[in-house]
């Protein structure tokens, strides 16, 4: 198990590891997506859009007390689930912790096996966008 994962993300990875069937993993993803708080339409701007995703994905990051808080939304249930998994797993981490993460943990969840190439690619795009936004959120506060 990857010791460098934030505790919340490690917990999510373990939860997915217990779901042995791909169908259960999908249901879990969709459940995460449904738990995602409402994302304001006013935030659905080009700056917040994740590039390179087949579906529409938006993500914002705010920085407070050296912790990043993400919000986001997607028009695809599964992509929204992936986004929600990342938001729940990364919220409360520091920008540095987020920047040092590698997306390999997706393999530990077993989800990479069930994802189509375009979804897997979308996952990486969401992940790298969140890393960029985490660092930007810190910069915008310290400027």
Keywords:
143 residues; 7 helices; Sufe protein. Chain: A; single chain; mainly alpha; two-stranded antiparallel ribbon
CATH topology: Sufe protein. Chain: A
Q: Low-confidence parts, pLDDT < 50 over ≥5 residues? A: none
End-to-end separation in angstroms reads: 37 Å
Mean pLDDT: 92
Number of domains: 1
Strand order of the largest sheet: 1-2
**Number of helical stretches of at least 4 residues:** 7
The percent range for strand residues is 5-15%
The proportion of residues forming helix, as a percent range, comes to 55-70%
The level 1 CATH classification is Alpha Beta
- What Rg, in angstroms, do the CA atoms define? 14 Å
How does CATH name the architecture? Alpha-Beta Complex
Biggest beta sheet summary: 2 strands, antiparallel
Helix-strand pattern, N to C? Answer: HHEEHHHHH
What's the total number of strands? 2
Helix/strand-derived category reads: mainly alpha
How would you describe what is shown here?
With 143 residues, the chain is mainly alpha-helical. It has one domain (7-142): Sufe protein. Chain: A (Alpha-Beta Complex), CATH 3.90.1010. Helices cover 57% and strands 11% of the residues. It is built from seven helices and two strands, in the order H-H-E-E-H-H-H-H-H. Strands 1-2 form a two-stranded antiparallel sheet. A hairpin with a 2-residue loop joins strand 1 (57-64) and strand 2 (67-74). The longest helix is centred in the last third of the chain and has 26 residues, at 117-142. The chain starts with 6 loop residues before the first helix and ends with a helix. The mean pLDDT is 92.
């Amino acid at each position: 198990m990857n010791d460098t994962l934030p505790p919340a993300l490690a917990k999510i990875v373990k939860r997915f590891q217990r779901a042995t069937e791909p169908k259960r993993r999908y249901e879990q993803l969709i459940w995460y997506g449904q738990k995602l708080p409402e994302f304001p339409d006013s935030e659905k701007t080009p700056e917040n859009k994740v590039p390179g995703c087949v579906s529409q994905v938006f993500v914002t990051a705010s920085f407070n007390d050296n912790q990043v808080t993400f919000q986001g939304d997607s028009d695809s249930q599964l992509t929204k689930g992936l986004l929600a998994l990342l938001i729940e797993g990364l919220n409360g981490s520091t920008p540095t912790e987020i920047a040092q993460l590698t997306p390999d943990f997706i393999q530990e969840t077993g989800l990479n096996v069930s994802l189509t190439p375009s979804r897997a690619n979308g996952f990486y795009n969401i992940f790298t966008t969140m890393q960029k936004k985490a660092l930007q959120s810190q910069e915008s506060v310290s400027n």
